[in-house]
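Support reply, case 0932

Customer input (verbatim):
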Amino acid sequence: MEKATKKQKTGATKAIGTANGHAGASNSTSMPATYPALDVSKTFDDRMDVLCDDVIVDCKPFEVESGFDCYIDENVQKEDWKAVWKSHRFGCDVVVEVKDVCFPHAKVEIVEPFCCVPNSLGDFDKAGGDGLQLKTKDDLTTFLSDGNGKVLLLELLPVLDESGDLDGQAEVLELYRYFYTYIWRATDENDDGDYYFAMSLLQPRMKIYYDVQKKKASKAVVDSYTKIMTDYEKKHWQFKIKHEVYRGEEADRKELQKLWVEICELEKQLEKLTYKYYKGMY
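Our regenerated output:
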């Protein structure tokens, strides 16, 4: 994996916390700079070439996750690198150290000194999330201990390494994040169709994504795609977090089923729009 020719980073952010680990007051600790969550300089061909040649290759839909598992296993350091954990569940960013990568999770530990800032990702709870907002280091440590230290790899942004040694790894994780945010659909893993994902689904989905970003599509398509994708992403994260939190009570299962139906309906709208756009019907 070639190193990035130009390092991109997000600026350091003033952390929230006090010496005893409570969020709510500023201290001298700053949130470290990270590699970008999404590299806007990557072109359609940049992503398509890597996905087709190195990741998906000839995978059928239900095999794609295995393809990413192998790709990340071969290109991402297993341990001893720092990241910012951008928690959707708790609406905060926390500096952690990765102790193991076990796709699609990573085992992490909180870094000293404790560094935590609020983020906007917890806004989903206004639409039905669990509403939990952790405020202390002890709370976060307990949560991680209860889950064997596991968080979703998608929620980790590697801390910028000035030496450049982690540039290639950061690119791999950025591609993974891009794919599972904008290209992958929740129902794809259950699709046992006898066809190649890259040929049938990847190109149409990437084409509408890039044409929307570059405003090559009509305003109607841009508006529709943006609205559906925003709703879809929010509900998909709601489902992931609720699925993690709930412990199988009947009412909770019903709520998850209701949310899943809504996700599937949004997927149908998204795929209908994608198909018509790809076929030149818009």
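We compared this against your earlier run and they match. Two observations from our side: Residues 1-28, 123-132 have pLDDT under 50 and may be disordered. The radius of gyration is 19 Å. Please reopen the case if you see a mismatch on your end.
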